[in-house]
Amino acid sequence: MRIVLVGPPGAGKGTQAAYLAENLAIPHISTGDLFRANISQGTELGKQAKAYMDAGNLVPDEVTIGMAKDRMEQPDAANGFLLDGFPRNLAQAEALDGILQDADQKLDAVLDLEVPEEEVVKRISGRRMCRKDGKHIFHVEYSPSKTDGVCDICGGELYQREDDREDTVRKRLEVYHTETEPIIDYYKAQDLVVTIPALGKVDEVTQRAMAALEREAA
């Protein structure tokens, strides 16, 4: 299957993508991984992306599209893939259609993870990272540390990242509504969108998504 996963920041796309890709035996292709791989391998696209990022500028669509195209052409993606974070806007969605058409392929579904906006704000703004380790993550409401402000695992200080501040989260949501949400209507016109309520436990959301994909494939 060839699937696009969309949803606002904090909807759990990365978590769901990993589970779904494993269940479907297809590669999980995320924009973040594409950038890291191309930059670390020193590819021409990676060098271009790094130059823009080092200058504090957004990476142009054509660079991101090029990376995604290269990855989708790898042998492990011959029978399908799950795209997470791409396409991010209408220009990228149209480019993806062109790439697939050239390869005589098509998308099977676009999974839209639906989460109320205030829940997104609560999920992200409540995160606390361990300053010492940088990997341990807690949440003030959903998974609090035993001692306020202290990591249970290594004793490091817990802090709120700038990206997780409520005002920053709301700005990220504005960008999502402006740039990414229009692709949902674009794919609805192609009868590809399957909306998945993304509240609840991780495995419950995964089961909903798998059931929806099975219905689409039937």
Question: Can you describe this structure in just a few lines?
Answer:
It holds the Pfam family ADK_lid. The chain has about 220 residues and is of the alpha/beta class. It has helices at about 15-25, 30-40, 45-55, 60-70, 90-100, 115-125, 165-180, 180-190, 200-215; strands spanning about 1-5, 30, 80-85, 110-115, 125-130, 135-140, 160, 195.
Question: In words, what does this structure look like?
Answer:
Helix 3 (44-54) runs antiparallel to helix 4 (61-72). The radius of gyration is 18 Å and the shape is globular. The model has no long low-confidence stretch (mean pLDDT 94). The strands form two sheets. Strands 2-3-1-4-8 form a five-stranded parallel beta sheet, with helices on both faces. It has a three-stranded antiparallel beta sheet with strand order 6-5-7. It has helices spanning 13-24, 31-41, 44-54, 61-72, 90-102, 117-125, 166-180, 182-188, 202-217, and strands at residues 2-6, 28-30, 81-84, 109-114, 127-130, 137-139, 158-159, 193-197. The longest helix is centred in the last third of the chain and has 16 residues, at 202-217. The chain has 218 residues and is an alpha/beta fold. The protein has a domain at 2-114 and 179-217: P-loop containing nucleotide triphosphate hydrolases (Rossmann fold), CATH 3.40.50. It contains nine helices and eight strands. Strand 5 (127-130) and strand 6 form a beta hairpin. It catalyses: AMP + ATP = 2 ADP. Residues 30-59 are annotated as: NMP. Belongs to the adenylate kinase family.
Given this structure, which CATH class of the domain at 2-114 and 179-217 is correct? Answer: Alpha Beta
Percent strand = 5-15%
Question: What is the fold-level CATH name, i.e. the topology of the domain at 2-114 and 179-217?
Answer: Rossmann fold
Return the string of H and E elements: EHEHHHEHEHEEEHHEH
CATH architecture term of the domain at 2-114 and 179-217: 3-Layer(aba) Sandwich
What is the CATH homology-level superfamily of the domain at 2-114 and 179-217? P-loop containing nucleotide triphosphate hydrolases
Uncertain parts: none
Query: How many E-type strands?
Result: 8
List the total number of helices. 9
Please describe the biggest sheet, giving its number of strands, its sense, and whether it closes into a barrel: 5 strands, parallel
Q: Averaged pLDDT, please?
A: 94
Secondary-structure-derived class: alpha/beta
> What's the N-to-C terminus distance?
12 Å
Helicity range: 40-55%
Radius of gyration using CA atoms only: 18 Å
Shape: globular
Strand order of the largest sheet: 2-3-1-4-8
Protein name: Adenylate kinase
Region (NMP): 30-59
GO molecular function, one term: AMP kinase activity
Function: Catalyzes the reversible transfer of the terminal phosphate group between ATP and AMP. Plays an important role in cellular energy homeostasis and in adenine nucleotide metabolism.
